[in-house]
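Can't paste images in this forum, so I'm doing it all in text. The chain is below; anyone willing to post the predicted structure tokens underneath?
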Amino acid sequence: MNESVFVELEKLFLALSDQTRLRLLSLMSGGEVSVGYLADTLGESQPKISRHLAYLRGTGLVSTRRDGKWIFYGIDDSLDRDVRRVLDTTLASIRYARPPAVIEDSRVDRSSESKTMIELDDWSPAEIEVHLL
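Text version of the structure:
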């Protein structure tokens, strides 16, 4: 198999492995936005956001457009079809994420009026299958 495929996939998944970068990509999924907007929306410093944007730009996921003093960032329109599919699936997962599930604690005596609830927001799968196309 071509080694460059693995190198490109590694770069893509490293870019997607950071929570701040995922949030940035999610905000850019609706179109171009300024660094100031991204920093304000995420409540982070502009230098931190700029570092993450530089990383995303280096991977080819994000492109820039200058308009006077302003620089706008957006998801690059010329992404490889397979990279775009992974990115779109990731962003759709973020966009349509459900709030944390809540279940009844089976240790609670059902005769009592108050029932203890357990949040499942820390749940993570033990194993994830990845299929390369």
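The longest helix spans residues 81-95. The domain at 3-119 is CATH 1.10.10.10 (Arc Repressor Mutant, subunit A).
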